[in-house]
Amino acid sequence: MSETQGPENYGKVALIGLGLIASSIFWAMKRAGMDSHVTGYARSAETRETAKRLGLCHEIVDSAEEAVKDADLVILAVPVGAMGPIAEAIAPHLKPGCTVSDVGSVKKEVIEAVRPHLPEGVNFVPTHPMAGTEHSGPGAGFASLYDNRWCLIVPDGASEEATARVEAFWQALGAKTEQMEVEHHDLVCAVVSHVPHLIAYTMVGVADDLRRVSDQEVIKFSAAGFRDFTRIAASDPTMWRDVFMTNKQATLEILGRFTEELFALQRAIRTGDGQLLFDYFTRTREIRRGILQAGQDTDAPDFGRVKVEK
Amino acid sequence: MSETQGPENYGKVALIGLGLIASSIFWAMKRAGMDSHVTGYARSAETRETAKRLGLCHEIVDSAEEAVKDADLVILAVPVGAMGPIAEAIAPHLKPGCTVSDVGSVKKEVIEAVRPHLPEGVNFVPTHPMAGTEHSGPGAGFASLYDNRWCLIVPDGASEEATARVEAFWQALGAKTEQMEVEHHDLVCAVVSHVPHLIAYTMVGVADDLRRVSDQEVIKFSAAGFRDFTRIAASDPTMWRDVFMTNKQATLEILGRFTEELFALQRAIRTGDGQLLFDYFTRTREIRRGILQAGQDTDAPDFGRVKVEK
Ligand SMILES: NC(=O)c1ccc[n+]([C@@H]2O[C@H](COP(=O)([O-])OP(=O)(O)OC[C@H]3O[C@@H](n4cnc5c(N)ncnc54)[C@H](OP(=O)(O)O)[C@@H]3O)[C@@H](O)[C@H]2O)c1
Ligand SMILES: NC(=O)c1ccc[n+]([C@@H]2O[C@H](COP(=O)([O-])OP(=O)(O)OC[C@H]3O[C@@H](n4cnc5c(N)ncnc54)[C@H](OP(=O)(O)O)[C@@H]3O)[C@@H](O)[C@H]2O)c1
């Protein structure tokens, strides 16, 4: 079997949604030398035009139904809230025995929304590539987005063979894969991603609101810590609205823990309990050490940011 | 006047405290070709030994009193809570007419703690270089830490000449300077730095606490947003305890606003008000745009992080 005929190679792949995640999939497939024929569809004519101009996909078509025709692998790469309606629309047009996958950041509600529409014999293999930037749209993707990042696979009754092929596909794109149970997935993501995003959005909103501190000052002095919040809080509003609307339970649970802890620290500040703060701040250092040891970040000053010259 | 005899050049400079901030001052002075004689003191013999080994300062002495003898510029670079006692100790040994400065992250309480001890005729010029990393100690400093960063000057009755010299000094180290009124300083810093740090510490604490999500998973999947919080939350516990103990009022005020906003978003999640979330997330994008336009960050994927190979 030549490299381009491995299990990760599907004859025809359909990308539904042509934003950051889908366009990065296409560029990474190209880099990997896969010879699949890739069809793409996005909701707006504007995005479809941009995709054509960028050379994204081998063919851009005007409906999701048309895109999935004859496809061996269909990847739903639209906001989480749009997955159900799309699945319903494409279901009658799916090739028997094909594999349907999605890349949504939330898994339980997506599975519940997609699964009932899929015909018997179609394999559904939900995934979640843990990679992204704050940019979105067809022009945002790049081939190395998934390199060394985790792509979580949340099995939902697909055949072992179908699941293994999707895993091989993501590995060919550069990712490391791991299977995770659906509810655990949504909880882990609430902790490492969803609640941190909500908090960052909130902090940026507070700064923006504060009339006594001008936006100008917030921007000028942002390197003191705030800047990293603004990066996170620049992510796509539609995507994040959908994440919070669909991962409600885990988000609210982690938020509850967060405010409980925050109130304890706030109380220590008010009462002058320096020891409590010191102990808390000492404990949190350990996690950072673990992340550096695991090679998940750089220790370079200023995050190894490319130097910004004025 | 040759470059090394400009107003930024002091004949003798004393650095009290030899951590990230002081060591970076020394290396930046060296890079700028200043010919001041620099004396250093730190509390522990261990830090003093390390400083000697690293070639930090021209002379390391065993007491703050000795360090400030004959100094034209004395810079207090110890945690905020240690400023008052140090000022009291050195006061009788200060050269008449010299300039005392500090680099504390909080200004109101530091000024109140230091000012009463200083003799008539000594100029006190409080400063706050808005630059740092999560590392601390004598080995953490580097010459370019202040390049293009802001150093805020909070005038407290020093002569115009003394203030201008301190500004020139910081500019020679690479910083941009700006004067700011003391209460406004503490509020701005609460917004752009102190509360973001507290929130990051809290989020990392929550993740660490959560038994159902292992530390291992938190570390593995940290790149999804959480990682940037751990970076902030790895900062020195003593420094940050002191910041919150001394900038209590502004911190509690901003924290109050933060929880108020967070509850509004939490409520929107609970009640399914997607429009509120969408509008909120759209608004916060603007601030990010301002930061990029102001050259305060890079737009590169993954913050322009140096690629971490496994
Ligand atoms: N960005 C991340 O960090 C990240 C990471 C992991 C997973 N994900 C998940 O990946 C998925 C896509 O995210 P993305 O970052 O690629 O988003 P994106 O860049 O905003 O692109 C979204 C794409 O979906 C299309 N779309 C939106 N609503 C649609 C609808 N109702 N019907 C049909 N098409 C629709 C958009 O078309 P138009 O351009 O025509 O509107 C666009 O092509 C989301 O489920 C997200 O949760 C994102
Ligand atoms: N790091 C930042 O991001 C940052 C940014 C702007 C301003 N600042 C401010 O700069 C100051 C110094 O911070 P840093 O980051 O340089 O801290 P650091 O790296 O932890 O160094 C602190 C230095 O102060 C000495 N010290 C501590 N307690 C002392 C005491 N009671 N008496 C005498 N010396 C004492 C320490 O000596 P030993 O090593 O012997 O304990 C050490 O040399 C703080 O006021 C901080 O608020 C920090």
From TrEMBL, chains A, B:
It catalyses: prephenate + NAD(+) = 3-(4-hydroxyphenyl)pyruvate + CO2 + NADH. The chain crosses the membrane at residues 12-29. Pfam families: PDH_C (PF20463), PDH_N (PF02153). Residues 11-299 form the Prephenate/arogenate dehydrogenase domain. GO terms for molecular function: NAD+ binding; prephenate dehydrogenase (NAD+) activity; prephenate dehydrogenase (NADP+) activity. It comes from the Bacteria. Keywords: Amino-acid biosynthesis, Aromatic amino acid biosynthesis, Membrane, NAD, Oxidoreductase, Transmembrane, Transmembrane helix, Tyrosine biosynthesis. GO terms for biological process: tyrosine biosynthetic process. InterPro entries: 6-PGluconate_DH-like_C_sf (IPR008927), NAD(P)-bd_dom_sf (IPR036291), PDH_C (IPR046825), PDH_N (IPR046826), Preph/Arog_dehydrog (IPR050812), Prephen_DH (IPR003099). Pathway: Amino-acid biosynthesis; L-tyrosine biosynthesis; (4-hydroxyphenyl)pyruvate from prephenate (NAD(+) route): step 1/1. Its EC number is 1.3.1.12. It is an enzyme of class 1 (oxidoreductase). Belongs to the prephenate/arogenate dehydrogenase family. This is prephenate dehydrogenase. It comes from Alloyangia mangrovi.
